[in-house]
Amino acid sequence: MKKKFGLLAGLICLGLLCAPVYAEEEKAAKEMDQMVVTATKTETPLREVAASVDVLDREELELRSQPNGDFIDLLRNIPGMTVARAYAPFPATVRMRGGVGQTVILVNGLPVDFKMSQSIPNEIIDRVEIVRGPTSAIYGANATGGVINIITKTGSENLRAEIRGGGGTSGTYRTSVMTEGKEDNVGFAFAGHYGGSAGENVVENNNNPTIHMINKCKYNKSGAAASGKYDFGRASSVTLFYNYWWGDYMRGRVYYGGEWERNYANVKFNQGFNDMFDMQVNLAYHVDDLLHTYDKGGTNYYTPHQRRYTDYEAIPIDVQFNGRFFDGKNTLTLGYFHSDKTEEQDYRDWNTNAELNLIKFSEETWAVYAQDTWKILDNLILSTGIRYDDWKNYDNYFGNYVNRTPDERSEDNWSPKVGLRYNFNTATSVWANYGQGFNTPTATQLYDDRTAGGNKRIPNPDLKPEKTHSYELGADHWFGNIANVKLVGFHTYTEDTILSSFTAANTVTNQNIGKTESTGAELNLDFFITPEWSTGGNYTYNVAEVDENPTDRTLEGKTLLYAPEHQFNWDVTYKKPEDITACLSVRYTGDQHVNDSNEKYNAAGEQLYMNSSWVVDFKATKTILKDKWILDKADFSFYIDNIFNEKYRTMIYYEDPGTTVYSEIALYFD
């Protein structure tokens, strides 16, 4: 692996030396001056960030199709990222560079349960920042692969509103409203949405009888979100955000479904003291009330079994102090983080309402961190950071476990990082970083031995936390206003990797499997042919495999779960403002394994892996009215996802629904 990483580093350096040098150009300057907050927890131009960062702004959020109704669909086009999703009713699981459970979802800078990613309406999202690579020194446990930060709107300068409505394949429909504006020192934004679908049968295979569907997976979704910001003056402000989401679904079986309700509230207070010092307090409250219903599993499609009522509560808070020294060349951030989470799962007999099982557990994390960014020279930036996390699992009750009240479990860890970026000019940059992190086992991995819908879970109270070391080396070069090339090499190795997977008997197991490694490269190319036409894409090569497994040597050299060796994305885009926008996308994802032994077929010949796929998508938006009556404009959008009806799986045994068509009318008032 070390030889491979050395070769990647050599290729990056060689490519940089061979690249022609151009004078400062408008596109390069605009890109490099873009401000991001996620990589350093303070507003920082991209030219000073020693990490791989992608930003999905409003234009990107509108450009491509989102067949599942949330922005996670757009991450399929980001280098090094894989998205696994059972189907549109369910939230997606995102993995970066082969890491399992190593990606943290943030909302306005605070960590949330990954299921929140489907709950926030696109209409109220201002942008999404994606940082790939080690971020545990800033965001703590489970952020060893990277973070995705959803940043919500706080109001536009001018009062505006949108009304949208559309429909398509499988009886899918969605309507939404959005309004935002600003008056003096008060900004606001509001969005509401409602939609649903008659669904598709997305599990026709028989390799897991419990998941096999005999009907369509139908669903409904609705919700509302509101945000606001009040500027007190003198660098002091308060920002509020609230999101409500509700959904129900029937999972292709008569008694297999559920109803979900999520509430999330966030308040952020900023206080500037002078030109040198400021502080920020960021607090959230997250409550979920969920119902899952089950039949008896297997082929017992028409036999109701149980209901699971889940209550989830989380209260994260982050307090951050920033100081700027030496005429702004040095920024020091000191912070404190605390989070409390509780979850209760109450299993009841469908017919008698008798209690079948009860699961309760709590988790507490507190952390302190420091981050320092130093402009040693105008074009040389050094970034260092360290974080101490103390994690505790307590108040456990697992009704079916051999010990119903397991003792509390605690772990602590120091996560350092260092990064260096050098800008040769506004067109050419190189960077390198190194970071450590850790990933704690969950309470359910430790103690949950329930059987839900026919699938038995085997807990492992002896699980140890993962320890991860990550390296990254990157280069970025602009060829005038014509093209941009980014090349990143990465290497990550994890000790005591936690693997949760299905066995051949459809039993979920949890185990530490020794040491795993991911080594690869990401190449990103963008070409700006004319002011209207552009094309570009990316290629990811990633070898993610088990390096050492003392308990089972036969697994050494096996590929990690959901880690394709090859990924490729390419777009052709036409943009003519206030007239038409169109984007044709091609996506290739290589084979993905879903079991630790990398078996592709079971004894009955049923497919056990996710086969490679070439998928072509298209979306076009045409302005059909402009400055008519009270309208600013009206747009008609049309998309086809999976044009050629490629047969592939989106998660374990779940199949893509095939070609889907959707059209929408959007009315804009300004």
UniProtKB/TrEMBL annotation:
Compartment(s) where it occurs, according to its Swiss-Prot or TrEMBL record: Cell outer membrane
GO molecular function: siderophore uptake transmembrane transporter activity
Membrane topology recorded in Swiss-Prot or TrEMBL: Multi-pass membrane protein
Domain TonB-dependent receptor plug: 46-147
InterPro entries in alphabetical order: Beta-barrel_TonB (IPR000531), Beta-barrel_TonB_sf (IPR036942), Plug_dom (IPR012910), Plug_dom_sf (IPR037066), TonB-dep_rcpt-like (IPR039426)
A Gene Ontology term for the protein's cellular component: cell outer membrane
Sequence ranges assigned to domain TonB-dependent receptor-like beta-barrel in this UniProt record: 230-643
GO biological process, one term: siderophore transmembrane transport
Tree of life domain: Bacteria
Chief localization: membrane
Keywords: Cell outer membrane, Membrane, Receptor, Signal, TonB box, Transmembrane, Transmembrane beta strand, Transport
Family to which the UniProt record says this protein belongs: Belongs to the TonB-dependent receptor family.
Name of this chain's protein: TonB-dependent receptor
Biological source species: Desulfatibacillum aliphaticivorans
